Structure formats: structure tokens, C-alpha cells
């Protein structure tokens, strides 16, 4: 079952931030002190929407949706390596994975943690996610996978839009 907390927070976030005294925080969201509550709320909501769009992309098997919020190139830190990949290549690499996978769960374990830089131009989102799927292996046999992921996505605001520029991730088997 998907964790409904992030979706429940989305409609409430502007009200919570607008009513909060300066310096008050909403759990999981840290925003710049020098910006208005409405600007903080708008940035936080935009980042939450990008996060939710990633879930939708996985479930709909749409790599184009997955990369739509990325910068022209993405820096990835994973499995002891660093790669810099153009958005088109990220999409081309993800589509076969999505095509071969059927997701039973792609759910947040806890609400994403968002931190926006004091100048409002950079942010990171820390995610803990449970992913359960079945996928065809190289022989065509269907295999069940249960994985727990943790990652940090780095965003830059470009032309008024948040773009993912980097991601560092780790994973481990999930318990049944």
C-alpha cells in the first residue's frame, strides 16, 4: 500500500507555511529564511510534484515522464561509481527496465525530506522508498524483486523551473 502522507500534505502545505510564524518549520521541509512563505510553499510543492511524477512514470512505464524534470545531463552516484549522462540516454536506459517491470509497490517509507538553499536556487530531496516488482530476466523468466532504496536528488532552479541535476542512491533487499 502506498504511503498517503505526502499526498495529504500537498494541499495543506501552503496553509501551514502561510500561517506559520517566520522560522517555523514543517516536518521534512526546510526552506530559505529570506523568502516569503508563499515562495517557500510553491518551491516545496513543485519539488513534491516532481517526486510524485517519478512514481507516476514508473507505474505508467513512461521514461519520458521520468526525465522531463531533469537537466540536460544527470550526474549519478551509485554502486561505487560516478556517471554523467545526457537526458536522452537516461531515458533510453530506463525504458527497457520499465517495459520489463510490473510494479506492485513504488512507495515512500517516510515522507520525502526537502531542503531548499537560502537563495532559493538549489534544493535536495531525500527519499526512502520500497519497490516491489516482477521483471523479466534475460531468459524471459519472471523474477520477483523486493528492494529498499534511499537516495538524494539535487535540484537547481533554471528559468524558474526545478531541474534534477544529480542523484546519489543506494539500495538493499527489502523484507517480505
**Under the CATH scheme, which class?**
Alpha Beta
Strand coverage percent: 35-45%
How many separate helices?
4
Instruction: Examine the secondary-structure arrangement and name the CATH architecture.
Output: Roll
CATH topology label: Nuclear Transport Factor 2, Chain: A
**Average pLDDT for all residues:** 85
Number of strands: 8
Helical percentage:
25-40%
Poorly predicted runs: 1-26
Which structural class do you get from the secondary structure elements?
Answer: alpha+beta
Distance between the terminal alpha carbons, to the nearest Å?
Answer: 13 Å
Q: How many separate structural domains?
A: 1
Mass-distribution shape:
globular
Largest sheet: 8 strands, mixed
Radius of gyration: 17 Å
N-to-C order of helices and strands:
HEHHEEHEEEEE
Describe the model.
The chain has a single domain, classed as Roll (Nuclear Transport Factor 2, Chain: A), CATH 3.10.450.50. It is built from 4 helices and 8 strands, in the order H-E-H-H-E-E-H-E-E-E-E-E. The protein is globular. With 176 residues, it is of the alpha+beta class. The longest helix has 24 residues. Strands 1, 2, 3, 4, 5, 6, 7 and 8 form an 8-stranded mixed sheet that branches. The two termini are 13 Å apart.
A few lines on this structure:
The chain is of the alpha+beta class and 176 residues long.
Provide keyphrases for this structure.
176 residues; alpha+beta; Nuclear Transport Factor 2, Chain: A; globular; disordered N terminus
List the helices and strands and how they pair.
Elements: H1 5-19, E1 29-30, H2 37-60, H3 63-67, E2 70-78, E3 81-86, H4 87-100, E4 101-108, E5 113-116, E6 122-136, E7 142-158, E8 161-173
Parallel strand pairs: 1-5, 2-8
Antiparallel strand pairs: 2-3, 4-6, 5-6, 6-7, 7-8
Amino acid at each position: 500500500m502506498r504511503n498517503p502522507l505526502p499526498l495529504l500534505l500537498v494541499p495543506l502545505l501552503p496553509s501551514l507555511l502561510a500561517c506559520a510564524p517566520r522560522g517555523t518549520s514543517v516536518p521534512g521541509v526546510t526552506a530559505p529564511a529570506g523568502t516569503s512563505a508563499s515562495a517557500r510553499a510553491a518551491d516545496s510543492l513543485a519539488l513534491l510534484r516532481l517526486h510524485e511524477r517519478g512514481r507516476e512514470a514508473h507505474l505508467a512505464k513512461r521514461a519520458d515522464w521520468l526525465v522531463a524534470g531533469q537537466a540536460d545531463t544527470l550526474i549519478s552516484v551509485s554502486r561505487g561509481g560516478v556517471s554523467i549522462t545526457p537526458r536522452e540516454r537516461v531515458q533510453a536506459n530506463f525504458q527497457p527496465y520499465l517495459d520489463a517491470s510490473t510494479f506492485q509497490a513504488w512507495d515512500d517509507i517516510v515522507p520525502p525530506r526537502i531542503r531548499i538553499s537560502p537563495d532559493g536556487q538549489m534544493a535536495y530531496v531525500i527519499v526512502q522508498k520500497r519497490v516491489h516488482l516482477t521483471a523479466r530476466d534475460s531468459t524471459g523468466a519472471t523474477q520477483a524483486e523486493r528492494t529498499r532504496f534511499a537516495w538524494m536528488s539535487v535540484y537547481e532552479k533554471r528559468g524558474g523551473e526545478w531541474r534534477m541535476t544529480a542523484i546519489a542512491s543506494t539500495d538493499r533487499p527489502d523484507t517480505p
